[in-house]
Amino acid sequence: MQPDRRTSTWVILAFVMGIATTWWPAPIAGSGAETKQGAVKKEVTVYYFHGTLRCNTCRTIEAYAKEALEARYGEQLKSSLLMWKVVNIDEPENEHFVDEFGLVSSSLVVVARSGGKVTSHETLQDAWTLVRDKPRFMEYVQRAVGGYLK
Predict the structure, then answer these.
(1) What does the angle CA 73 – CA 76 – CA 80 come to, to the nearest 5 degrees?
(2) What is the CATH number of domain 42-149?
């Protein structure tokens, strides 16, 4: 008697899942990487990276981005689902961000983490061209961040 195709598929799938669970262990309990339900916690951070010397446009981008986040995502900021961080990349302890996110100048970067590891990031390049149009700038930042919060 030969098993049908569906049975063979389920047997193969069960075998692969058994191997996968030994290769990818679950988060360590108490590590902060899981939620109350045991799922890995997703975090979104919006960084404004800058150097020590800052121009008026750099300061405006920082102010508008912060305002955009507080206006649309105030609750997420309060609950730490979303975090806002301003980082001087000229300070030695922050130099790693330059390589990590491919920074070449002051930058607004949205970073998603899962289980403490970066899963994706996006540099909001249009921040520089939209800074002179505050409503469009705010909508651009809110839309980009909203995509990561889904």
Answers:
(1) 135
(2) 3.40.30.10
